[in-house]
Structure formats: C-alpha cells, structure tokens
Fold each of these.
Amino acid sequence: MSRLSPPVAPFSDQLLALDLPDLDEDRRRQVVAFVARRVDGLPSPMKAGVTVVALAVDGLGRALGRRRVVGVLGRRPLPVLGEYVRLVRSLAYAFIWETWPDTTPTGGRPVSERQRANHQASSSAHWCTTANPHASPDARVHQ
Amino acid sequence: MTDEDTRFGTEVLVVGSGAGGAPTAALLAEAGFEVLVVEEGPLVRQGEVVPFSLAQMDRQYRAGGVTAALGLPSIAYTEGCCAGGGTEVNSGLYRRPPEEVLERWRRDHRLVDFDLAEVDEIAGEIEAELSVQAVPGAQIPASEALRRGAANLGWRHDESPRWMTYPDGPDARLGRRQSMTETFLPRAERAGARLVTGLRVDRLVLDGGRAVRAEATRTDDGRPVSIDLDHVIVAGGAIQTPALLQRSGLRRNIGRSLAVHPTVKLAARFADRVNVPDDVPVHQVKEFAPDLSFGGSASNPGLVALALSDSWDRFRDAIADWERVVVYYAAITSEGRGRVHAVPGFRDPVVTYRLTRRDKAVLGRGLSRLALVLLEAGATDVYPSYRGAPVVRTPSDLATVEATFAVGRASVMTVHLCSTVPFGEIETSATDSVGLVRGTTNVRVHDASLLPDAPGVNPQASVMAVAIRNTRRFVETLTPGRKAVT
C-alpha cells in the first residue's frame, strides 16, 4: 500500500480552482505537482492512510462529480476527510506564498507583476535575500 | 562497490548525529574509543538552504516536514533528518534544564547517581562550547512586540539565549548558529570519529542480549550495509530510537510514553513591517510557565499563509500584508501521552498521541491569552489558527475565542518530542539510570527518548546534558584506565 502513489492530483487541482480562482493554470500545475510529491514522501503508515482516503474521495468524485465533492469537503470539515483537505490545503498554500509571495488572496498575480513582461520569471524569494547573507535564494525554488 | 561500502566494523556505533549523538561521539572519540557515527540524512552546511524554507524541509527534515501523531486531533510534528539532527533546523534557542524538573526526574524515576550539581556543571560546559548568549544589540521587531505586550500586562517574560556567534557590528541577524555540525561533530572527527551520512540503521542484531551487528541501508541506492560493533548508542530522537529498538526485538517499556509540548498558533498583524522571514523572536512569555509558554515562530509568507488557512475565507486578505504579519505560538506542558509503534511491513513507525481534557482546555486558554499579549503589543488584528475563529481586534473579542475554540478545529503541532525510552529505576523505565536498555548488555540510548517527561522548556540542552553525563559514566564503567573525559 505504501508504495502506491495516492491520487491527490485531481482533488488538489479542483480544490485550488475553488479556493483560489485567480491562480493561473501554470502555477496551479506546479502547486499540484508539489503537493503530490510531498504526499508521496509521507511516512509509510501515513501514506497508506492518505492513499485510502484519496482513493475514496477520487471514487466519489468520479461518481458524483469532482467539483461537487470537492466543494462539499472544502466547506464542511468532516472527520478524517477534513484532515485530508487540511493536508492538501496547507501544503498548497505554504508552497504558493513561499514561492510567489506577492500572490493575491484569490491566487492572482499582483497588478504590478502582470504589467511586467509576461516572460519575465517571477521573483520567488525576495524575502530571504536581505535578512540572511548565508542563504542562497536559488536553493528554495521548487520547480 | 568496495567492501568498505557494505561492511563496517567499529568499537562504538553511534546511531544519529543530533543533540544526543554528536556530544556522545565527541567525548567517546576523545577518550580513545573507535567511533563510527551513522546518520540517515545528508550533510547540509549552514547557508546551503534558507532557514525555515520548504527547501530546508525537503533536505533536512524527515518526510519533508510532513509528519503527524495520529489522534483527536492529530498533532503535526517535525523531525530533523540530517547531520546534526534537530539542532540544524531549529531556531537555536537554549534553555538550561530547570532544577525542579531535574529533581522530579531524579526523585520520581529513582535515578541513581543523578547529581543535579553535576548536570548544572555540564550545562555550563555546553554553554561555553556552543557560545550560548543573548542577542547583542537590537532584536527583531516581532520579538520586541512580544516583550512589549507582556510588559504592558505586567506578565513575566524573558529572552531565551541562543547558541550563536555574532560578528562585531550592529546587525545581530548576521549570527551563525552553533549547531552540531559547527561544534561537537567537527570535534568528534578531529578526535578520530568517522561520520557516515545517508545510511539508515534498520535493526540491531542481538545475540543473548548483546548487540553484535547493525543492519543498515544506504538511502541513495538501497544497498544493504552491515556494521559489526562492540557497543551501540542509539540517538535517533524520540520517534526513530524506539522504532529501531522495537524492530530489533526490544519492546519492554519502549515507545509507550511519548511526551510533547502541544502548541497552537495565531497570526498577528501590526501597523509596521515587523516580519523578518528567516529569523524568529527570542522573547518568551513565562507568566503561566510551566503550564503555558508563549513565543514567536518562523513567519515567512508561506508559513503566514499556513497560519491563516484554517479560516481562509475570512482571514485571507491578511496574506496580502504578510510583511506586517507574524506567527506566534502558545505551548503547553501536556498531561497526555502518546505511543510509537514499529509496524511490520512499514518502513516508518505509527505515532499516536492523546490530549487530555485538561490539555485541550489549557490550549484554548493559552490561545486567548496569547492574543491578549499581542493586542497589548499593538497588533491591529489577530487571527487564531482554528476553523471558525473570529478576527480579534479588541480584548472584548477574546470572549468569542474562548466560546468558539475547540481543539478539534485547530492546527495543533509540536517540535519537542521526548520520553519514549525513559531512563530510571522504576517499573516503567526502559533503561537503567545511565541509558543502558533493559535486557541488553551493550545497547544504550542517548537522546530525548530518555527524558522521563517533556521538561516544559526547549529540551535540547537537557538532551545534551544527559548524553554527556551518561557518556562519562559509560567511559568510567567500561575502561577505568582510559584518559579522562572532559
């Protein structure tokens, strides 16, 4: 069981679409990949438990509609399932605001950034460069 | 592949290189023992990763920092998994073990030859070795806010010293943490100890109560490694140590009494830019200690978002102002206990923890009082980390916090894990008074597992002091002719 990868990506993607409607597709894809990678690295008993829950939620999503299931779980914290939502949400939010600290509360890019050239890479770690001279800003980019 | 890659031999094997393993290795090597230190995680030098970042969690924490003790509620915890262990990833705050705690351990667990004056003396040696000192000059604004809030209330507070060296000059943020990779590990290597990283010890092979070999696995390619040994000292921390002992067939009183300091959090918004993302406040509020202590957490924007996420629909606007927001915590001394179970077929142990009714009440009270401190410090908005929490703007809002807080809705976490292999001479002790595991002749434990309970303060000084004391006993008992261990 612990060798299986829990199917968290579809759920994470839908949860982010509902929570942070302005998060663009490219960023959402990076966040989902990060969440999946972290869940895959969970301690083996936790991973087994999360796999069971993720399979159940995925099955429900297929049967009842993913958007509907994610909407209900996102709003109403149920026992066990609520912990799954909290896990995904906390990993995703930590990644988003650490990687792109200027992200708006709805997941959008700040106006100033949108106005810059679209091709320019976003500054992902400006918070770390001034306070700690030993820090390498590149080391914390997860892409 | 050479034989050296797959087979080691040593007089003393030290499993783990953190606050327990590193001082143990240094003292043993200096006493003339052949010492091999094996560490599951990598060696990461200070400056290679940003403190408190996700990159650091990827490289230096077990499972990327996503670990939890199951229960109602589950309690998130973190374990360092790198050379130096938890000393590499924490904030370097230092608290000498309180005398009343040491006395309680000595008395209630019938610790033999546990001399409080000796432990105190060892603590002094540790403080010199690690350059433990207060921050010279100004502190970060988030720390000053905590001090100001407590002072306005007339509540007891103090600055926790840190193991840091500081360059000359006004900016205390340029300090260098004196973690194990900066202090005891180099000292051990200078005395001849070998450090091997990326090697996980799966189990000890015992022959009639005597460990003769350790079976290990390389973490990069999964190759098995065998280590012949005369003595083994396990110092993998309060989760991994009992798990390893259980996998080795040693179960008596092992893994049954996990103790932690459960912690709840809030985020506080100020008018000024108070957030220094890669440093933490050093002030702590001790008015209700040891039951309750308040302090500040790492507050990079990702961690601020995390603190706001339980009530995101109402708190989310604060993230746009993260430079004015800081995360603080209320930690309690818990009456609850947990367990660590090594389960066949799983690589990692199952960890559980049960909070008592009193614990849950104290956590709620703590969150409310912490919010009051921050209002007194000048916070304009306080965001408690639990589902359905109100935004606190005046002291009158605290009644709503107390009415709506339920621990099941909160994000409870801890970083202090202790007591899974308690030492002493009572029925529930897992080792004798110097860490020798019951039923064995050469398996010792030198880490936070030994502490009979969570000491109510950061436990790493206690861990180091006990490890050094036990190492001295080990050397004295085993080889009276060897040179003195200082």
Amino acid sequence: MTVDSARSSTEEPIDAPTLPGAVDTTAAPYLVTAVAFLVLALLTGLDAGIQLVLPDLFSGVSFMSYGRLFPLATDAFLYGWLTIGLAGGLLYAVARSGLVEVVSAREARAALGLMALGVVSGSVALALGLNQGVQYFEYPLWADALLLVGMVLFARVVSRTVRSATVDAGPVSWYAVAAAWWLPLAFTAGNIPGIVGVGGAAQNAFARSVLIGLWVVPAGLAIVYHLIARITGRETFPPTRLTLLGFWSLAFVWALTAPAALVYSAVPDWLETVGGIFSIALVIPVAVIVTDLVIGLRHRWEQVAGDPSLRFVMLGAAFFAAWPVANLALAMRSSSGIVQYTDWVAGLAVIGIYGGFTAWLMAFAHRAAPKLMGSGGGRRLAAFQYYAMLVGLLVWAGASFFAGTTAGWTWVATANTAAVPQGGVGFVNTLAGVEGFYVTAYVGQVIYALALLAFAVGMLRKRGPLPAVVEVEVAEIDPELALDREVPAGRLRAGAVALFVAAAVVVWLVPWAETAGVEPSLLADTSRDYPAGSPEASGREIYLAEGCWYCHTQQVRPIVTDVGLGPVSTDADFAHEAPVMFGVQRIGQDLMHVGAREPTNDTAWLVGYLADPRSQRSYSIMPAYDYLSATDLDNLAAYVAGLK
Amino acid sequence: MDDLIAQIAAEQGFPADMVRRSAQARAQAQGVTIEDILQQWSGGEAAPAAASAPPAGEAEPTAPAATPEAPDAPAEAAEPAGGPDVEVLAPRESEEADESTEGIEEAAPLGTILAGFPRWLAAAFVIVPLIAVMYAVLAPDGPDCGVSGQLALDPVTGEAENCDGSEYGVVVVDFFSMGEGLYDSKCAACHGATGGGGAGPVLAGGAVLANFPAEQCAAHIEWVALGSAAWPDSTYGALGKPVGGFGQMPGFGDSLTEEEIAAVTLYERVAFGGQSLPEAELDCGPAGAEVAAAP
C-alpha cells in the first residue's frame, strides 16, 4: 500500500512521504484487524449487557449465555481491539518518530497473524464453554500460546525499529519499548496455570493490573506523545523532566496497585496495605503525565483545537486522570467495604478500557487511517463519534458508579436483619434499588456502541484529500523543565523489566509463598476438596466454563457488608483450589456457603432452578441453563449444594 | 564517500552501515546531499555526538557532552534533525544552561527535581506520599475492630460478630432504664416518683408484688394495658382488690407499645417490689430478652 502522491502535497512537511517512516504502512493491517475485532466486541458486548435487563432474550442458546458472551466480548475488546490496535499504533509511532521504516515488516505481519489467530480461536473457545476461570486470561492455553508468540515477535520488531531510528524519538520510544516488552510479560504472568490457593488470586490481580497499567496505558501514551508532537508541528515531543518522571513513576507505581482488587479478602493484610499505599501514590504519575501533555500543547490550543484526533487525545487524558480516583474507592478499606464487588468495578473498566484508553486508540486511528489506507471518517463523522462516545461513556459509567454505591449501602444497611438476609431470597431485595441503574447503564452502552460502530464504518470509507494542515507556531519549552540528557534504550528496557519483576515479587510471589503452605481448614477439607471425577469436581469445571463467577463471589469478608453470609473466609479455606473463585461482582448472591442455606442445599431443587430460574423466582436475572445436559446440571447442582 | 563513512564510524564507534543510513535519512530530511551531512559530522566542531546524530539504540553515549554535568557542550546547542520549521529540542542559550547548572548545584536535591514544575504539582509530590505513608503507618494490618466496617470473628463459628463478642445485628436494650423513664413520665403523677402513692395506690415497699406476685407479671402487664375501664372482672390481682376501689386506672395499651409496658412493669417490680432484675426479666417475658433491631 502506498500513499497517494497526489494527496501528499497537502500533508505537513514532517510527514512528507520522502522521509523514511512516513511511507511505512506496516500498521495498516493492524488497524483493519483491530476495527474488525472492535465490531465483534461491541456486538457481543451488547448481547451480553441486555441480558441483565432481559434475562430470557437468548434463553436456551448455549453460546449466547451471559457467562460465555461477557468474557468473549471483554477479551475481544481487550486483545482484539485494544492490544492489536495499540500494537499497530506503536509501530506507526516509532517508525514515524524515528524516521525509519519498521524493521522487518514481515515479522510484524507474522506477529499480527498470530495475535489475530489467538483472539479468534480464544473467542471460539469461550463461546464453546472453554474458560480457564481467570479474569482477562480466560482463553485456553493453546490460544494463549499463539498470542504470546505474536506478542514476543511484535516486541522484537518494536525494539529493533527503535534501535535503528535516525533521530531520538524521546518519550515515544521509551514508552514503546517498555510497553512492548511488558505485554508478553504481563500475559505470561496471568496465564501460568495451577497456582493453588489465594496465591492465584494475587497472581490474577497482579496480571490484570500490569496488563492495563504496563501495556495498555504506556502503549497509548507512546502514541499520544507522537500525536501531540505532530499535531503541534514538531517532529518529536521535546522530553522534559516531567516526561521522564512520569515514565518512571508510572513504571514503578502502577503494578504495585494490584492488591486494590483484594481488599478485605483472604490474602495477607500487609498486601492490602501495599495496594492502598500505591493506589494513593498513583495520583502522582497520572498527574505528572497529564500535566506534561497539557504543557506540550500550551500556547497552541487555538491552532489545534479543531484537530479530530486531538479531541480524542484529550478525552483519553481526562478519563486517564479520573481512573486513579475511581480506583482509590476500591483500594481504601473504608470505601472498599461499600463498593467492592458492586458495579463500581464495572464502572472502573468503563472509564479505563472502554473510555480513556479506547479514546487514545481512536485518536491514532483518526490520524493514521488517511495516511495508511486513504480512508477515514472526516471531521463531521469524527465530531459525531466524539460527542456520542462521551455521552455514552458518562451515562454508562455514571449509572455503574451509582448502582455500585447504592447496592453497597444497601448491603451494609440490611446486613443480618431478619427481613433481608444477604444470602438466599433476600439478596434480590438488595439489588431491587439498582434495577433502574442497570437499564440506564445499558442505554449508555448502546449510545457508546453506536458511536464506535460509526467509527468502524468511517475507518473503512474512502475519503478525499486531507485538508491543508494548519501552520503552527512552535514555541520553545520552558528551559528549566528541559531534559538535558538521553535515556539509553538498553538501560530503559532493563529498568522496565526490573521494575516489573520487583512488583511481581512483592504483590504476587511473596504473598503466594506466604500462603502456599497453609494447613487446609476443616471447611476446605470437608466441603471444598473433590476427588477427580466426582460429580462435584465436574460441577466445578462447569462453574468455571459457564462463567458463573462473573456474577457470584465465593468469599465472606470480615466486615459489616458480609454479615449473614456465614463464616468469614480465610486463606486456609481455599487451600485445595486452583484457580480460586473469589469472583468479580455480586450480581447474584455470594455462594461461599450457599449449600448451608435453604433451599439451595437441595440438589433436586437446584437442578430445576438452574434449568429455569424464573419458574422458581420471578425476579431472578440468572441465565437459564437448560442447554446443559442432565448430567452436567446434576454435577453443577452437586457442586453448588456442596458449598457449605 | 565510503572513506568518510569509515572515518566517522571509527570516530563515533558506530557500524559503518548505520552511519550511512543515518546520513541518508538526515540528508533527505534537511534537503541536502549526503556528502554535506558527512562533512559536517566529520568536521569536528558541532560534533554530532551521541546526543543527536546516530543515536544507535543501546550504545552508550561516547561523548561526555551528553551528561548533565556539562550542558554547555556543543551537543546541547546543536540542532538535531528536522526541517527548517521543526525543532526537536528547544535550543538553549549557553548562558541559560550555565545559570540553571549553577542553580542545580546550589539547590537541595528536592529543589533540583522540582525546578520548573507547576507549583501545585510540586506540592503534590510532598502531600501524596505523606498520605500514603500515613495510610501504611496508621493501619498496616487493617483497621481496628469497629472502624471501616471491620468486625471481630467468633472463634468457634468463624462468623463475623460485634467487637464485644455479641452477635452482629442484635442489640441488647436496657429495659430497666427504659421503664424508669416511662414510669417518670406516665405513672409518677398518681403513684409517686418513688412509688409512695398519691391519686393511685402505693407501689413501694413490696406493695406491687403483693397484688401481682412473682410469675404473675403477665397479669400486671394486662392491668397496665387495659386499665380499670376495660378490665373484664370486678376485682384484679392476687389480693382481689376491687376495680375502681381506689379511683380509675387509665389503660396504656393504646399509647405504649407492648415492649414499653413490659419495661414499665419490670421497673416497678424491681424498684418498688424488690424483685431481682434477672428474675423480673425472666418473669416479664420479652422485657430484657434480646430483640432484633436494625443497626
């Protein structure tokens, strides 16, 4: 694919196709693939989301069941759209910033092929009910292997391209090299199977945290630094001491915020405190980076305000700035007791994965699609996408945060009262107050999906010549802030990997070692240890595969919220399990001791209930599992009823 | 040209083909010939140095110019690649560089790092870590019982419970004090503040227990609830006292709850009748027993 020479005269001189890098189109197939996965993720996401409002819509269709569609949509978004798209953006940014062509376009294409194949086969596996039972790392190991090889190939291409750059691309190359290597590391950390006990929960929290904080975020920032430089008429972003501080503090802090997801759970107390400390500290790198971006745009607002990609850069920066604040609510013990396991968790994903980080990728697409493929939406379509996306995100995230706090306060207020027990039938009363929020959140999700579908269509549409680029006056940066030294790429990569390993040791390996040898509790031995081949063991497999754990927790915390759910969980209770089923949210009741309550202690009743929940309880929003075989249903019921 | 490239490669310590490629890109970028670029690089003055010219990835900078200690070296002032309308790094006056260097040498380390930062951001560098450290120091192992929703654990069942070991969500009410308050406001006007009587009969000195003996608290409660007007018999109590014999007793069934009436009788029987509190609690039914209440 070559750039149309007739149009090139209207492009800004720094992107002139005579420069190496400016004609490089290695990123084009990445962008096309990412947009295709975006469509898949949006459509499956809508099908999953509506089931919280209309649970019987796809009843009886196995691959449309919420527990299968939800991870399919999430992972297609995270890997198919964000990861592949950001990877394309990185190749684009390092080539153009460094004035080189991508070193080995062939390897880059092979990396894309492997990653895309991984996402496709992983999605099919999830639809068929092959789920590893670990959030964000659900794909089966053979699909993971494809993705991992692709990621390593991709990281090598990025590293070599940066090494061969003819000019120092500053922050673009720092973030690109570090992110490209953090990605395979994070993916590997999340997929190592067989970790027994709560060490597995620490592993998952760590891997999820670094996948977002040390891959998605820095990859987005590499692209953003490149885009801001070009939008403001510079060749590369002039790095300041803020830029460097932002990079290293992000690299140091983010991974250590991981235990914020485990507050009050059955992990060591000191681990929760580490998560709290660094969730507070995360304010610093985010504030530094956002300030640095804004300084980079200083004095140029009027000239560049109409740029379609700049809008998305700033939308992304705003949601990026909001992320540590929303995360703090989960990390601090006092508020975590209210919002943990509620829709607050979903809201955080909305402002991050679906919000800010997607906006950065869209900024790249708007900038690059005309150059890479001669396509793009044009300014008016871009403006529609921007406003619709913003409205959709605010409604979706806002409704999620309100639903979260409402449910959390209700759980506290009704803990152990005779009228509304937390477990059993009473649980639904605690969610009755959030039903309206669920409808609102879904409306937001629909608006958001429409905006992004319009984006996807726009990406494919051929368009006319680019409008002439505004001449921008280049102002000097504050000499006091200027960075007066280079950052050698070798030291940068070594430092990035070292920080990753250090964080893995602190928030994953040490707590794992501390809890690995724990004497299994009586509860673990009597009701959570199953001989291979027993109905309970098979039932647990189905529990993982059908994604029951996206809506049901198995964990009682020592706080007011969980009074009435049974004995408080300790690490010894999970000593036989891999992976542990701590869960994600409580859209349904906690199941830690569900087999000790009426009528869920009765296997026969459970079989009927699982097959057709609304025949027993009209208000239930659980999917009907009538598509499972009679044996599978019996096994699943045996597992659930055995959770005493 | 190859000689020049080889010479530069030797001087700078980079592979020859990298120098060539670099020079080509630079020449294209600046619109000059490769020879010009190579001449410039080999010229000695305005040396490309590690800072700008072939950066060559992981290679350590060979020229000392790249270190912050010597910011006035040529590399700092050299304008790296880019078209005429493009700046990669803001060129710095050597004077400015000197000044800032002096300032850095004199200032404290923190001042060095924060120089030029927006003031509010510099403040955040102090405040945010301070809060983080406080969080760690104040409650490294989580909050104390009763704080942030934290509860104690029952050592036997493992269930969460109140910090004093009682069951969570269950509140023990002090019915004696409750009854005392009610007696003062509702009964003392006729029966006297200390049960000495007045418009109503004497309760003190065991009198109340004489008519409603131990284990007949139920009758006592019924009498208070109904009063003389609604009482079905002509006499009341163990002594068979005539209804209305000492004036009219109002019924409190409508104005007080069952629990409150039980509390008043409990108070009267302990304070005036001399019954022991545990005995009266057992006697008067719900009074003194645990009653579920929302937190």
